[in-house]
Amino acid sequence: MIKSHQAVTFSRLENALFRLRAPILVLSLLATLFLAWRASFIEPDTRLERLIPGSHAFVENARDTLGEISAGGSTVVRVAVSRRAGSIYDYDYLLQLQKISDELSLLPGVDTGSLNSLWAPGMLWFAITPEGFESGPIISSDAFDGSPKSLEAIRNNVLRAELVGSYVSIDGHSSLIDFRVLPVNAATGQATDYNLLSHRIDDIRKRFENDDLQIQVIGDIKKVADLVDGFTQIALFFLVAFLITAALLYFYARCVRATLVPLLCSVVAVIWQLGALNLIGANLGVFSVLVPFLVFAIAVSHGVQMINSIAREAAAGASSLDAARISFHRLYRPGLLALISDGIGFAMLFVIDIGAIKDLAMVASIGVALVIFTNLILLPLLMSYIGVGPVGISRSLVKQQADNRLWDAVAHFAEPRPAKLVLAGALVLAAGGFYIGQDLRIGDLDRGAPELRADSRYNLDSNYITDHYSTSTDLMTVFARVPQGQCDTYKTIDIVDRLGWQLRNTPGVQSVDSAAETAKFSRYIGNEGNPKLHAIPRDERVLTRSIERVGGSSVTLDFVAESCRYQAIRLELADHRQETLQGVVAVVRDFALEHNDADIEIVLGSGNAAFEAATNEVIAKAQYETLAYIYAVVALMCLLMFRSLKAVACILLPLALTSVLCQALMTLLGIGVKVATLPVIALGVGIGVDYGIYIYEQLRIHLAEGQPLRLAYRKTLRSTGRAVSFTGVTLAVGVATWIISPIRFQADMGVLLIFMFLWNMVGALVLLPALVHLFRVGGSTREPSLEPVMPGPAVERILPKTQPGQSLNRCA
Known about the structure:
Elements: H1 12-19, H2 21-39, E1 44-45, H3 57-66, H4 68-71, E2 75-83, H5 91-105, E3 110-116, E4 124-129, E5 132-137, H6 148-160, E6 174-181, H7 194-208, E7 213-218, H8 220-229, H9 231-253, H10 256-279, E8 284-285, H11 291-315, H12 320-347, H13 355-386, H14 390-402, H15 404-411, H16 416-437, H17 457-468, E9 475-481, H18 490-504, E10 509-513, H19 515-525, H20 540-546, E11 566-573, H21 578-595, E12 601-604, H22 608-642, H23 645-669, H24 678-704, H25 709-736, H26 744-775
Parallel strand pairs: 1-8
Antiparallel strand pairs: 2-6, 2-7, 3-6, 4-5, 9-11, 9-12, 10-11
């Protein structure tokens, strides 16, 4: 039979909320309409500088040496114009190449002076002839008439300029156009719209591609733009996840009202989140675009707990208002604790000095703060009016009777022998996960753009250019900083040459360009091609003239600063994998340690590869530091609420096991820790702590009544445990569709989230009670009697029983 009930005193806040529920709901509706309008203005944030650590030494070196704008992220785009069959030494092909080059040079944001192609006037060939030194453009407009003679001359010029592998493919079927993109459009003074520029490049590609001609495009702005173009697909997957969640929630509750209200409140949280971002002048970053779904998932998790409690109270005979008030009173403390822990934990990501992660932390923190209102306050206020339907109440009664055997079985994990087996299994999993996780890699593990699928257009283009050219878009610049006016001394150039030689022999480095190379080449061709003179002249007067920019070849920028404060060594790397970047950085640092003195300082500086190396170093340091901060915050919040270190251990240890196993899973799947994935590991803690707090709070109440652990846990499972298991499975099924997303980083996040949703659920349902048994947290561990349990709430009622439709008008 149902126990006798005791009255409870509601707080002034609770009384005020339900007394003013109509004005609160009206104001919430108005706020939703306004913020939905503001959310419609949200745009993707494609600023490349948000993907790099702003205070890392490499970035500061670039900023100090080149200035704020130059260091901020000008990027190189490479365009290969290829023939499906036949050589590039064809009249029609070369005319098309000229048109493509001209159109690209006129695009807003393109640094026209940096554009190089076979038609560029600065692209020169050099030769030593009996008549002396000769030079000229690769293609002379005056002499180009399409005749076999002119085409053969172009072929010879390409060979004399040594462009095979750099601007002409090794098989001779394509040639390359490259240019720099300015971070600021000089004509408008506004930041360059990389997404718009990418679309205009695609327009040129569509107009010129035909049965014979193909165009491949690579570069950071193209990669980011392709990710942004996938945002519409991300929205589609979000819709699918929403529909799956709705279907499963209806199957669980069998009540339209109990299905729509938590979904509505969860969507309202997302709308408010996006609208608030727009109000503060922020946008969604490339890697923050999935955060709204995480906020939706967290909101659904808390909403299901509230709906589950309201349905149980309604099944026990409470009116809609009383059921909502009782549920709010019972759940606001654990819910508030869980959400505050989530929000502060997400805010801890601010310690990582990478703009994209800070943006993600801000988006997630705002979203979680809004869930406190929408799902802990707005949801019970709405349900106090509409309540759970008769079918939903009947469903709640049936479930309480039907799943007793299931929860009896799960409750065995609170008994001594099963608890010991669970703890032993957890230790084995933790040891195995830690061992495998030691091989977890930092940064990108594949060439191209790992955020996109291997068969995406960008990665296919990247593979083509990498396979047919000895060039890439992975660039790095090393600076040799000297006192003003000392950039062209023999000592400086000699040091630059020595470092260039070491870098040229470093795995992963494809080319090295510097003033030292220019000086040697200039002296070589100025002395009739005498190989003995392919060296740096010691006479500094000759050296100064030798390092002046020689016509063209592949040089796009001078290596010597106008102020003569530094020399630049420019590298092209084969890829941006961690091993490649670490190898180059180690060579430069070792060389600097040996040669830096009062006259010269070798420092790593600009280039997307340098910035990626800096990002990897920040990520490597931050991954465990951030987790430590998050766990510390969650532990402190749990300690403040439960006033027990044992309680903290019971809630946090299952989360820690999930973190260890998640890193092992990433290792096995070949997913590196980077800007896109580091926050997922941290967010997993926030997603999982909700389960543990709800279960532990309910279990603690039963144990405090002196009930044996197994009986107390069985009652907890029949109320809170049911909602936790449903939420974990539902959210995992919802994100399962992400695995087929064409955007790989969404698919990777889908896999990780499925694992965390399910494993956090398992940890809360199985490992937590075993830990409670281990730590002897309250109650007794003796075997309880298995007297039949009648339908009704699994926890003691806190208000007198009322008839349906009857409301309590006073609070005792």
